Automatic annotation (TrEMBL):
<dbReference type="InterPro" id="IPR050482">
    <property type="entry name" value="Sensor_HK_TwoCompSys"/>
</dbReference>
<dbReference type="GO" id="GO:0016020">
    <property type="term" value="C:membrane"/>
</dbReference>
<feature type="domain" description="Histidine kinase">
    <location>
        <begin position="189"/>
        <end position="375"/>
    </location>
</feature>
<dbReference type="InterPro" id="IPR036890">
    <property type="entry name" value="HATPase_C_sf"/>
</dbReference>
<dbReference type="GO" id="GO:0046983">
    <property type="term" value="F:protein dimerization activity"/>
</dbReference>
<dbReference type="GO" id="GO:0000155">
    <property type="term" value="F:phosphorelay sensor kinase activity"/>
</dbReference>
<protein>
    <recommendedName>
        <fullName>Histidine kinase domain-containing protein</fullName>
    </recommendedName>
</protein>
<dbReference type="InterPro" id="IPR003594">
    <property type="entry name" value="HATPase_dom"/>
</dbReference>
<dbReference type="InterPro" id="IPR029016">
    <property type="entry name" value="GAF-like_dom_sf"/>
</dbReference>
<dbReference type="InterPro" id="IPR005467">
    <property type="entry name" value="His_kinase_dom"/>
</dbReference>
<keyword id="KW-0808">Transferase</keyword>
<dbReference type="InterPro" id="IPR011712">
    <property type="entry name" value="Sig_transdc_His_kin_sub3_dim/P"/>
</dbReference>
<dbReference type="Pfam" id="PF02518">
    <property type="entry name" value="HATPase_c"/>
</dbReference>
<dbReference type="Pfam" id="PF07730">
    <property type="entry name" value="HisKA_3"/>
</dbReference>
<keyword id="KW-0418">Kinase</keyword>
Length: 375
């Protein structure tokens, strides 16, 4: 085949190369294509790197049918080429490719905005079908080189950027999700910790409003002062680590006992705490869920039920931890408004693969049930 037909056929084939497939596949395919269309014994792509020694050309991709090209070499006058060059001289070709069997080679520069970024090197160990390149052939080669620059340089960059964009999108979605989860968590913590104490303060203030006994008022004010200081401490703690300190220090049973005693004192509601089999400390996560549920259940009783008696059962049954909070109040009204207290318990329990259910007996009271697998 005449030289120019050969080169035009190469141009046609290169134009069909799509950037859709993986870069490596495409680049290997192109090296192979160069060898087959130009009947060459090797094709390799070298890209410029600047390092301590100066500019180095390193082999990126290659398809070698017998020839062995150097992996890398220092910057030389050849690598500065800005237009295609064919080397007829076997001595020069051997020196250039660092393969003694190489007789001829074609160097196609990879250029981006007039800057040479690397080269595509094609070599022959015997005769080469492009031995007689005319000025027109060189012109066609000039058209081929930007196409090669796209394939070997621009497409990899694009693919790298696309992958980076995907990674950033994944990270962004994760960050947004984490942020939302944390917000939910903080909202629950504020509700459970600060909300409980403020409710207690409110109830005590109500008692004070109805009293004319100065001594009694003074005594209660001392208590309120104390609770307010505790609330401040609580807020500080929430902002520090968002974990209930009582629970951390004492463990579930003792922490619930302390909370129940404080509750009895501040609300005047009788609470019976029944625990069974609660020997060893259960996992931190479960302790947290149960403690929060007790806090919320008791607060709800004081706020909504009108009950004067609560029974809390906390037992380990088989592989489950069972919590029940039963009150003798009016029960949940049909048209009650949903808050985030019960929803919070429900969410925490479901995250721990547990079960949460209410038993509502209008006029007789409400029972909260929580079953949590220990494992
Ligand atoms: N022990 C109870 N007895 C009667 N009604 C209750 C009881 N517990 C909850 N409720 C009803 O269920 C509703 C929802 O309770 P939930 O704890 O989710 O929200 P809340 O207490 O109103 O507000 P918060 O978000 O501050 O907890 C309450 O508004 C109340 O009407
Ligand atoms: Mg509530």
């Amino acid at each position: 085949m005449p030289v120019n037909k050969l080169i035009i056929s190469l141009l046609k084939d290169l134009s069909k190369v799509s950037q859709e497939t993986s870069n490596k596949v495409v680049r290997e395919k192109v090296s192979k294509l160069m060898c087959s269309v130009l009947e060459a014994d090797g094709c390799a792509v070298y890209l410029h790197h600047s390092d301590k020694k100066g500019l180095t050309l390193s082999k990126e991709d290659s398809f070698l049918k017998g020839l062995k090209f150097a992996d890398s070499w220092q910057h030389s006058e050849w690598t500065l080429l800005s237009s295609p060059q064919y080397i007829h001289e076997p001595e020069q070709a051997k020196a250039f490719t660092e393969d003694i069997s190489c007789q001829h080679c074609l160097i196609l520069p990879l250029q981006l905005e007039e800057q040479t970024l690397g080269i595509v090197l094609v070599g022959w160990s015997k005769s080469s079908p492009v031995d007689d390149l005319s000025p027109e052939d060189y012109q066609i080669l000039q058209v081929i080189t930007p196409r090669l620059s796209d394939i070997f340089y621009i497409y990899p960059l694009l693919s790298h950027l696309t992958q980076r964009e995907k990674d950033l999108a994944t990270l962004y979605h994760k960050a947004v999700k984490d942020f939302e989860d944390n917000k939910k968590q903080i909202s629950l913590e504020l509700h459970d910790e600060v909300g409980q104490v403020l409710t207690s303060i409110l109830l005590q203030l109500k008692l004070l409003q109805n009293s004319n006994d100065l001594e009694y008022i003074k005594g209660r004010l001392g208590g309120l002062h104390h609770i307010t200081l505790e609330t401040l401490e609580e807020v500080r703690r929430i902002s520090q680590n968002l974990r209930p300190h009582l629970l951390e220090k004492l463990g579930l049973k003792a922490a619930v006992e302390v909370h129940v005693n404080e509750y009895i004192q501040t609300t005047g509601i009788d609470v019976e705490l029944r625990t069974h089999n609660l020997g060893e400390r259960v996992s931190e996560a479960l302790e947290n869920i149960v403690y929060r549920a007790v806090q919320e259940g008791l607060t709800n009783v004081a706020r909504h039920s009108g009950a004067n008696k609560v029974v809390i059962s906390l037992t380990i049954k088989g592989n489950n931890l069972f919590l029940q909070i039963l009150d003798n109040g009016k029960g949940m009204e049909k048209n009650h408004k949903d808050g985030i207290g019960l929803l919070g318990i429900k969410e925490r329990v479901s995250r721990a693969q547990g079960k949460f259910w209410l038993i509502n007996k209008p006029g007789l009271g409400l029972t909260i049930n929580v079953l949590l697998p220990l494992a």
